């Protein structure tokens, strides 16, 4: 008892006499040394890890730099320039080959004098993407319409041609390279989001028939590899469509990729829908919005916003998956490299390595840009989360 | 209409003075009988306060009135329209019944003004200009016109709840439902929301309010309904309800809540 009494007197009553001035943090926490110690050498395990990583970097980076840059051949017109010679015993990447074949890698067999149409398509697409992806851009609603409606229609006319307005037709069999890779990825992206949203809504629908269809579609497509879907699309689609209408090979692959991506997108969107609080649905219903108004105005804008990082991640996956279309005979970017690297005209010991290195750099830049974007959106959302 | 049976075979005469009519309403969640034989008759302009212990079915009851919950037996007639599975009727009723939730449920991705004009524009098809004017009018009434351009997350709880009330009022409802509008608020904000509701009551709004604010009930209610275990246990004018509760459970509840 007396303990408690003394404690009360001594400790619990307190009045501050003088304010405490701010002090600098201890040295271990701040500055470069502090940072190093905290992040790299905080424990024995961390020290080992740090050293191992450093070794790995030393082991990989110098040879890579040597091959890709130091020993690389930048200019040259024929394979001779990329062959080892007395003056140049060690030959690195043969960029001369890539530069010479750049047109082929980009356009495939697209007629030379019509290539400006592809360039225009790339430009349209780039503007569309930047406008849509830039969160502070003006008129973002318009940007979405542009990206999902206007650009597809213009591109279709531009790439395939419309003789009536003086654009000669270019069959899809002549398309190739980056053009095809971008077209496949982009159609997958443009179709999979709306279709994925519909499937996600369908899966949560009150109507059993709609729900059943959505579940079967999603689970079936997710249950098989993309190659299977592609084979099915290229073999089975002609069975459903009349012969006269005979869908071309690229279209079949596009359908396959789009359906495949939609099934995955549906699950991504569903996760976002599930994260929405029930109160939002109730408030929307209570003010009298119809189901579609509620979804369009209240639920989807919020659900998609928090889902953007995941959506972009599935786009990254989709972009890489497009390389599989070459199995059903589509001449995509990787296939173009494949064709060029075995071309005897450029047969050198380093041609294949260079070609693959170029492909790796191309895919890496595209995918890395997309995941950086996802990070940026995530950071923005975290900062804007004041609710 | 008292003779109407549970199954509701006889249509009730559509009395224009009746705002809400619940006749023999039952509801189950699975096997759990949440609402048991609810009979409630609310005339226009009447203010009803519903109270009762947690889990007694108060929220469920008022959410049945705008079909956020579906009842399985009995009849509910709101402003002359009977609630059935007919989606048109449900929409019609929801347009005329405003609701305020415990957790405000404002739309966080829209500004305050957009929260207020959304339903008038999309549901009532009002021109944007007109809808914004009406919205500003109601923001003035709930005394926060200066917050119109902010997002809900930037407001205090009390301000958010007043926006929620204004949002409901913008649809020009005939009936307002409140589900514990002050119980998620810090004590110092309760008064501003209650004041807004008192103002509303003075204007003659038909109100059904689930609340434990007994001061509000005394001041505003025409009738207090006490619920327990899914049933209406007692229903009386506030003076009588607080001064001389009849039922044992009411007495127990009041002794716990009024201390
Ligand atoms: N969706 C649901 N599914 C199953 N049971 C539910 C559901 N919603 C509510 N209940 C149950 O129904 C009962 C009544 O719930 P209700 O929310 O109407 O109570 P309340 O009187 O509003 O309580 P509170 O004061 O806690 O809000 C509770 O026992 C609750 O657990
Ligand atoms: Mg409740």
What structural class is derived from the secondary structure elements of chain A? Answer: mainly alpha
**Sheet with the most strands: spatial strand order of chain B:** 6-7-8-3-9-10
Low-confidence stretches of chain A: none
Structural class of chain B: alpha/beta
Low-pLDDT stretches of chain B are: 1-15
Shape of chain A: flat
Q: List the secondary-structure elements of chain B in sequence, H or E.
A: EEEHEEHEHHHEHEHEEHH
Strand content of chain B: 15-25%
Distance between the first and last residues' Cα of chain B: 40 Å
Q: How many H/I helical runs of chain B?
A: 9
Biggest interface pair, residues each?
A-B, 20 and 27 residues
SSE series of chain A: HHHHHHHHHHHHHH
CATH superfamily of the largest domain in chain A: MetI-like
Q: How many helical elements of chain A?
A: 14
Q: Write down how many β-strands of chain B occur, each being a DSSP E stretch of 2 or more residues.
A: 10
List the bound ligands.
Answer: adenosine-5'-triphosphate, magnesium ion
Helix content of chain A: 55-70%
Main sheet specs of chain B: 6 strands, mixed
Features:
heterodimer, A: 387 residues, mainly alpha, MetI-like fold, 3 domains, 14 helices, B: 259 residues, alpha/beta, six-stranded mixed sheet, four-stranded antiparallel sheet, 9 helices, 10 strands, 37% helix, globular, disordered N terminus, binds adenosine-5'-triphosphate, binds magnesium ion
Describe how the helices and strands are arranged.
The complex is a heterodimer of chains A (387) and B (259).
Chain A: H1 2-12, H2 31-39, H3 44-70, H4 95-107, H5 115-133, H6 140-160, H7 178-203, H8 208-222, H9 226-240, H10 249-274, H11 278-286, H12 291-321, H13 333-341, H14 351-384
Chain B: E1 18-29, E2 32-43, E3 47-51, H1 58-65, E4 73-78, E5 81-82, H2 87-96, E6 97-100, H3 112-122, H4 128-141, H5 157-169, E7 175-179, H6 187-202, E8 206-210, H7 214-220, E9 223-228, E10 231-236, H8 238-243, H9 248-257
Parallel strand pairs in B: 3-8, 3-9, 6-7, 7-8
Antiparallel strand pairs in B: 1-2, 1-4, 4-5, 9-10
Adenosine-5'-triphosphate binds next to strand 2 and helix 1 of chain B.
């Amino acid at each position: 008892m007396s303990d408690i009494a003394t404690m009360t007197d001594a400790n619990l009553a307190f009045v501050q006499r003088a304010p405490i001035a701010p002090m600098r943090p201890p040295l271990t926490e701040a500055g470069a040394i502090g940072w190093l110690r905290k992040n790299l050498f905080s424990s024995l395990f961390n020290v080992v890890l740090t050293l191992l990583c450093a070794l790995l970097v030393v082991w990989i980076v110098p040879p890579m730099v040597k091959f890709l840059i130091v020993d690389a051949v930048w200019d040259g017109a024929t394979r001779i320039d990329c062959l080892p010679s007395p003056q140049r015993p060690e030959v690195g990447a043969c960029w001369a080959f890539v530069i010479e074949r750049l047109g082929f890698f980009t356009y495939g067999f697209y007629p030379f004098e019509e290539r400006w149409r592809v360039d225009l398509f790339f430009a349209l697409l780039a503007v569309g993407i930047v406008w849509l992806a830039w969160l502070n851009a003006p008129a973002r609603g318009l940007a979405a319409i542009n990206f999902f409606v206007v650009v597809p229609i213009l591109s279709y006319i531009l790439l395939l041609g419309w003789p009536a307005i003086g654009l000669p037709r270019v069959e899809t069999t002549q398309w190739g390279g980056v053009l095809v890779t971008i077209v496949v990825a982009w159609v997958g992206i443009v179709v999979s989001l709306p279709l994925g949203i519909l499937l996600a809504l369908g899966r949560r629908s009150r109507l059993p028939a709609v729900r059943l269809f959505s579940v079967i579609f999603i689970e079936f497509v997710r249950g098989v590899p993309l190659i299977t879907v592609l084979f099915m699309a290229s073999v089975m689609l002609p069975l459903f469509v009349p012969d006269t209408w005979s869908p071309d090979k690229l279209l079949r692959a596009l359908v396959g990729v789009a359906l495949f991506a939609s099934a995955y997108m549906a699950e991504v969107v569903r996760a976002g829908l599930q994260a929405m609080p029930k109160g939002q649905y109730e408030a929307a219903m209570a003010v009298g919005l119809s189901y579609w108004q509620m979804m369009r105005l209240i639920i989807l804008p919020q659900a998609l916003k928090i889902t953007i990082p995941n959506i972009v991640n599935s786009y990254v996956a989709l972009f890489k998956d497009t390389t599989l279309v070459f199995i059903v005979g589509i001449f995509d970017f990787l296939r173009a490299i494949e064709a060029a690297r075995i071309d005897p005209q450029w047969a050198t010991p380093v041609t294949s390595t260079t070609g693959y290195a170029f492909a790796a750099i191309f895919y890496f830049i595209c995918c890395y840009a997309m995941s950086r974007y996802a990070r940026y959106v995530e950071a923005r959302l975290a900062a804007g989360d004041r609710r | 209409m008292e003779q109407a049976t549970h199954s509701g075979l006889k249509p009730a005469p559509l009395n224009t003075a009746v705002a809400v009519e619940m006749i023999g309403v039952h509801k189950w969640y699975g096997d759990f009988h949440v609402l048991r034989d609810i009979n409630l008759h609310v005339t226009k302009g009447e203010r009803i306060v519903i109270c009762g212990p947690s889990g007694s079915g108060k929220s469920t009851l008022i959410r049945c009135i705008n079909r956020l919950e579906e009842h399985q037996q009995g009849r509910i007639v709101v402003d002359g329209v009977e609630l059935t599975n007919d989606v048109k009727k449900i929409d019609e009723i929801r347009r005329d019944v405003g609701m305020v939730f415990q957790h405000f449920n404002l739309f966080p991705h829209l500004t305050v003004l957009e929260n207020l004009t959304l339903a008038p524009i999309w549901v009532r098809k009002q021109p944007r200009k007109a809808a914004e004017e009406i919205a500003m009018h109601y923001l003035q009434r709930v005394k926060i016109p200066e917050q119109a351009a902010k997002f809900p997350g930037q407001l205090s709880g009390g301000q958010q709840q007043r926006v929620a009330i204004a949002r409901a009022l913008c649809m020009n409802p005939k009936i307002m439902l409140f589900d514990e509008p002050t119980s998620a608020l810090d004590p110092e904000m309760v008064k501003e929301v209650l004041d807004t509701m008192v103002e509303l009551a003075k204007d003659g709004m038909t109100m059904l309010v689930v609340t434990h604010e007994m001061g509000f009930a005394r001041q505003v209610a025409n009738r207090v309904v006490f619920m327990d275990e899914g049933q209406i246990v007692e229903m009386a004018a506030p003076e009588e309800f607080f001064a001389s509760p009849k039922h044992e459970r009411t007495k127990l509840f009041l002794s716990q809540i009024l201390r």
